[in-house]
Specification:
By secondary structure, the chain is α+β, with helices and mostly antiparallel strands. It has two domains: about 160 residues, 3-Layer(bba) Sandwich (FAD/NAD(P)-binding domain), CATH 3.50.50.60; about 160 residues, D-Amino Acid Oxidase, Chain A, domain 2 (2-Layer Sandwich), CATH 3.30.9.10. The chain contains nine helices and 20 strands. Strands 5, 6, 7, 13, 14, 15, 16, 17 and 18 form a nine-stranded mixed β-sheet that branches. Strands 1, 2, 9, 10, 11, 12, 19 and 20 form an eight-stranded mixed β-sheet that branches. Strands 3-8-4 form a three-stranded antiparallel β-sheet. It is globular. The model has no long low-confidence stretch (mean pLDDT about 95). Bound molecules: flavin-adenine dinucleotide. Flavin-adenine dinucleotide binds next to helix 1, strand 2, strand 3, strand 13 and strand 18.
Length: about 375
């Protein structure tokens, strides 16, 4: 039986980054992935992700966000494929919505550069957006686009280059932990390691059953609307956006980076497991997004050219799960999703590598404690 320093289960956004950082630090790493490299069954596909820093979700995220941006820029130097593209970002809505008020609070508290714009100013500076007179927008100059598939490829290539072994099509089936180490079983092999990192995305609840994590899978759709004014909606002119458009319709979008303007909404359908997620597009999913694109965006056609489904893994408080397993300090549990985790993947790899090697994480992770849900771990 082969023995490793650290075993990483799940090689999506978080796992490929963890494997990369661990291997760079000289750890002997084995990564196990259920599917092929860079697949579309989980949460890290769809050709673009938004990054931003005036974070309405809370100022606690800002130190991680700033380090994540440094690491994305560093990753960019390792590959000719695009990793990161600054565009600036608009958080749009009535001034009292969490999207605008929360972003402003974080920007002020953390002294981040920002501008608060009224609807008339947005109309002249960013004519791609049709705001109502009572809406405003917070402009975050430190926002832009990440290219998730390229990020995963670059992180995985970096891990292999630094000596990690990555096995695809070999899911972790079970694991046990004790103070002496970890044993992991797959259908074909058994592996031993000092530490285990569980970065299994939408499958996490089933992989760490004893924690009874209250994670819910939310199926989402991404829509691409073709440009009819390409110069208006190109990434050179159009910022990424989050928009609280009223009537509980919250949406986000990415400018045309070669395939049309991408729009998604935060109105998904829930299931307990990824296998039970309904991947079919219904009229009730499509109608509000099409109406939004037709009524509130300029420079795009009203009918999408493509729709792709993707999974969120949501914690009830919408914060991440990140930290040592409460009963097994040599097992690190990571579910950094709740719909907003991708921009953190670069720094999460660094943090997870520190946790898995017994170092201090370097950031306050109190908000993300896997034991915070008040459920006692099952014994055994
Ligand atoms: C539509 C959509 C839009 C989003 N937009 C944004 C955005 O704009 N900005 C942002 O920051 N975030 C965004 N997010 C969130 C972000 O993409 C996720 O937080 C992130 O991709 C989660 O990464 P992950 O590593 O946890 O999951 P994944 O990348 O899905 O990785 C989990 C991996 O574990 C593997 N696995 C599962 N079980 C096992 C097992 N037993 N053994 C081995 N491998 C296993 C899976 O196959 C998978 O590859 C969005 C998400 C979606 C769905």
């Amino acid at each position: 039986m082969t023995t490793y320093d650290v075993l990483v289960a799940g090689l999506g956004g978080a796992g490929s980054s963890a494997a990369f950082h661990l291997a760079r630090e000289g750890e002997r790493v084995l990564g196990l992935e259920r599917f092929a490299p860079v697949h579309a069954h989980g949460s890290s596909h769809g050709r673009s992700r938004i990054y931003r820093t005036a974070y309405f979700e809370g100022p606690e995220y800002v130190p991680l966000l700033l380090r994540a941006q440094e690491l994305w820029r560093e990753l960019q130097t390792s590959t000719p494929e695009p990793i990161v593209r600054p565009t600036g970002g608009l958080m749009i809505g009535r001034p009292d919505t969490p999207t605008v008020a929360g972003a402003l609070r974080t920007a002020e508290q953390c002294r981040l550069p920002h501008e608060l714009l009224d609807a008339a100013t947005v109309a002249s500076r960013f004519p791609q957006f049709d705001l109502r007179s009572e809406e405003s927008a917070l402009f975050d100059p430190n926002a832009g686009v990440l290219y998730p598939e390229n990020c995963l490829r670059a992180q995985s290539a970096g891990a292999v280059e630094a000596g990690a072994e990555l096995h695809y099509g070999e899911p972790l089936v079970s694991w046990t932990a004790s103070a002496r180490g970890i044993t992991v079983r797959t259908r074909t092999a058994e592996y031993r390691a000092r530490s285990l990192v569980l970065t299994t995305g939408a499958w996490t609840r089933g992989v760490v059953r004893d924690l009874r994590l209250p994670l819910e899978i939310e199926r989402q759709f991404m829509f691409w609307f073709p440009a009819n004014e390409p110069e208006l909606v190109s990434a050179d002119r159009m910022p990424v956006f989050l928009w609280d458009a009223g009537d509980e319709f919250q949406t986000y979008g990415v400018p045309d980076v070669g395939d049309g303007v991408k729009v998604g909404s935060w109105r998904g359908k829930f299931s307990r497991t990824p296998e039970r997620a309904d991947r079919e597009l219904h009229q009730s999913d499509a109608a509000p997004v099409r109406a939004f694109a037709a009524e509130r965006l300029r420079g795009v056609r009203a009918r999408e050219r493509e729709v792709v489904s993707c999974l969120y893994t949501n914690a009830p408080d919408r914060h991440f799960v990140l930290g040592p397993h409460p009963k097994h300090p040599n097992v690190v549990v990571v579910s950094a999703c709740s719909g907003h985790g991708f921009k953190f993947m670069s720094v999460l790899g660094e943090v997870v590598a520190r946790l898995a090697t017994g170092e201090a994480p370097g950031f306050d992770l109190g908000l993300f404690d896997p034991g915070r849900f008040g459920r006692r771990p099952r014994s055994g």
